[in-house]
């Protein structure tokens, strides 16, 4: 009887334990692939963009303007950039004081997020910002994730 009890206990333990590595192979890390995702249901992959230093709600921040086109500092209008990300201007992983705006390229519609966003600033200088972003809207079909490298423009 004792052998049966031990066998049942071992069988129970082997079925109740699972390997979580298949469920989340990247442990929540943001991908190193270029920023991509969906913008109002249309596939989005970063082609260019720019960063601008600013102060947002009393926090020294970097505003990141992302687009599918090869645009950078020479572009004057912010309307050319369908995605805007704002994060603290400091190296690290940020989930507070971060904001995202998804602009519909086919209309004047937009959605702004202040939650569900992670921005990792890997390096930042007077000329360049390198980082990663994950931003997901729970109410629309807008989401992005990936790595960016943008010039800082004044």
How would you portray this structure in words?
The chain has a six-stranded antiparallel beta sheet, with no helix packed on it. Strands 3-4-5-7-8 form a five-stranded antiparallel beta sheet, with no helix packed on it. 25% of the residues are buried. The chain has 154 residues and is mainly β. β7 (99-103) and β8 form a beta hairpin. The chain contains one helix and eleven strands; from the N terminus they run αβββββββββββ. The chain is globular. The protein has one helix at 2-16; strands at residues 36-39, 42-45, 48-56, 59-67, 83-88, 92-94, 99-103, 110-113, 117-124, 128-136, 143-151.
Write the layout of secondary structure elements.
Elements: H1 2-16, E1 36-39, E2 42-45, E3 48-56, E4 59-67, E5 83-88, E6 92-94, E7 99-103, E8 110-113, E9 117-124, E10 128-136, E11 143-151
Antiparallel strand pairs: 1-2, 1-11, 3-4, 4-5, 5-7, 6-9, 7-8, 9-10, 10-11
């Amino acid at each position: 009887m004792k052998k049966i009890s031990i066998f049942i206990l071992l069988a129970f333990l082997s079925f109740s334990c699972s390997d979580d590595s298949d469920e989340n192979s990247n442990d929540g890390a943001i991908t190193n692939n270029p920023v991509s995702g969906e913008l109002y249901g249309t596939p989005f992959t970063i082609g260019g963009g720019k960063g601008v230093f600013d102060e947002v709600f009393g926090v020294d921040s970097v505003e990141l303007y992302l687009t599918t086109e090869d645009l950078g500092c020479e572009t004057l209008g912010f309307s050319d950039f369908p995605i805007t990300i704002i994060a603290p201007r400091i190296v690290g992983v940020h989930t507070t004081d971060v904001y995202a705006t998804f602009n519909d390229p086919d209309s004047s519609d937009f959605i702004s997020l202040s939650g569900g966003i992670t921005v990792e600033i890997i390096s930042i200088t007077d000329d360049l910002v390198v980082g990663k972003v994950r931003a997901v809207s729970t109410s629309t079909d807008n989401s992005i994730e990936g790595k960016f490298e943008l010039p800082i423009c004044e």
